[in-house]
Amino acid sequence: MYSPFRKVKGERGGGHGSSKSMWKIFIYRSSSSSSSKFDKKDPPKELLCPIYGSLMFDPVVVSSGQTFERTSVQVCKDLGFKPQLPNGSNPDFSNVIPNLALRTTILSWCEKSRAEKPQPPDYYAVESIVRASMPSTSSSTIKEEDPRIRVSNRELLKCVMENPPKNNHHLYSPSSSEESVIANNSPLLPFTTRPSCYSSTSSQSTSSEIEVPSFGSTSSEDDYYVAQFKKLDVYDQEQAVISLRKSTRTDEEARVSLCTPRLLSALKPLLLSRYAGVQTNAVAALVNLSLAEVNKVKIVRAGITPMLIDVLKGGFEESQEHAAGAIFSLALEDDNKTAIGVLGALQPLLHALRSGTERTRHDSALALYHLTLVQSNRVKLIKLGAANTLLGMLKTRDMAGRVVLVVCNLAMCQEGKTALLDANAVEVLVGILRNGSELDESTRENCVAALYSLSHGSLRFKGMAKEAKTVEVLQMVVERGSERAKEKAKRMLVAMRRRVLKDEEEDEQEVDWEGVLEGRVSQTRYRVGRTTHNRNSTEF
Questions:
Q1: What is each CA distance from 267 to 73, 192, 264, 289, 328, in whole angstroms?
Q2: Which residue ranges does the record assign to the U-box domain (predicted)?
């Protein structure tokens, strides 16, 4: 340890031959650098972000009046987390305003204190801090909010489906001429032609009150959005996609006028944004744009479909719901069906049908139904092993009403029939008709339609139907089923009866081979082909 006091030995002198110790004091002046080091003060608490704990680079005032670093606010919004303040309240992050006065104060303090000016904080560093401060119950509380909202939407959708309003083009009916989405022999079902993720009211992702811009006559309407989408500031991008989502939620004219090649091109990168607020609202805005009939082909030709597939594979949960809804909406257009299948949407949709949220699964099922109205997509889906997957879901009554629609389409092609029969589809469908009393009439009717398609042109159907005791179930359908179900059940019973009579006739006309070999039967014509006088007959 350094001391300014040093003890030194005295020199010999005066001939005394003695020595004595002497104390000398050395005074050192500290350098100016070390002086500033000790004089340096910590920044005032009001200049620090309450979440990140460092000097704020871009301070913003939130709706509840507190000031935070902008990145901290964005991270909290992305995680759906509201930290608790010292006074016990929670901040409201719905709106933010730059705090220019505080930013000037921070820079002035740094200059006077010779401190380094704050740099933009790293998003992931802030995220790790926020996650560490999130209590264990917070995440579960946040996750419980979405299902409550979804249940409300599902109940509303269910009511609309069960009581379809007259002349409402949002719902499907057999007489509708808006989209040709029902193929021959396919089941008729009054399902909605709008994704379940669509809502005409504000959602949780657009809770902030953002003013929709008004466009002058001298500039095109998409100029504002294109400019905002290309900005580097993530906050500006998010506000722009929220504004676009609100503008196109209910305004049909806005959907058509804003869906330009320039806007779609600028929107593409935002669909794959790593920021939840940007990605979710961008995909939701695309869903709104896709609701206009004239936009469906335009969106697919703009190259949007691969982005939607990527979101469906690994996007944020709410983004996946909107991606499935967007693909379903685009698949309603006949000209898009083949293209969407070629671009690789079938496998992600099949996976989402099993593992997504209820809204994702609902729209994935309907997207698969519309896409499999095209033969090429049926073959692709069969090659992906869809037969076992779909029948497995039917066994557990999982999304049975939607899944059976896809099964009906697959049963219409030879590849589909073979794969479904290999997966024991007859027994599964008959089991649903026998024991699925809890299912609605339309689901049971579609099971009969699927059996009817499987019975056509298949020699294997008879044996499998006999093992599953199909005749008994079909007789029950004839007695208590709907008119369409009764008609198909009667046709199958008649066809099966004819086959039984034909087999009995063939048994009666069996060749007496023993008599032929012994020479007791000669010059007699025995039927081996279709008739006794057919070319395939053999004379003995």
A1: 24, 27, 5, 12, 19
A2: 42-116
With contact defined as beta carbons under 8 Å apart, do 66 and 94 qualify? no
Asked if residue 397 lies in contact with residue 384, where contact means CB atoms within 8 angstroms, the answer is no
Q: Output DSSP code: residue 48.
A: B
The 3-class SS string of 379-415 reads HHHHHCCHHHHHHHHHHCCCCHHHHHHHHHHHCCCHH
Tell me which H or E stretch contains 9: strand 5-9
Q: Report pLDDT for 344.
A: 94
Q: Give the C-alpha separation, 260 to 189, whole Å.
A: 34
Which tokens is 419 given? 């794969």
101 closest CA partner among 54, 46, 41, 64: 46
d(CA 477, CA 479): 5
pLDDT for 429: 92
Distance CA 85, CA 50 (A): 8
* Gyration radius (Cα) of the chain, Å: 37
Answer whether 48's CB lies under 8 Å from 56's CB: yes
Task: Please report, as a single letter, which amino acid is at residue 223.
Answer: D
Q: Which of 60, 59, 57 is nearest to 120 (CA)?
A: 57
Residue ranges of the chain with per-residue pLDDT less than 70: 1-40, 136-193, 198-220, 499-540
pLDDT at position 435 is: 84
pLDDT digits (tens, 9 = 90+) for 521-531: 544 444 444 44
Burial class (CB in 10 A: 0-12, 13-18, 19+), 55: buried
The dihedrals phi and psi of 67, each to the nearest 5 degrees, come to: -115, 135
Phi, psi at 71, each rounded to 5°: -65, -35
∠ CA 391-394-396, nearest 5°, is: 120
> Which residue is listed with tokens 């808006």?
178
- Report pTM: 0.59
DSSP class of residue 170 equals T
Which two three-digit tokens encode residue 514? Answer: 């023993």
**Which amino acid is located at 152 in the chain?**
S
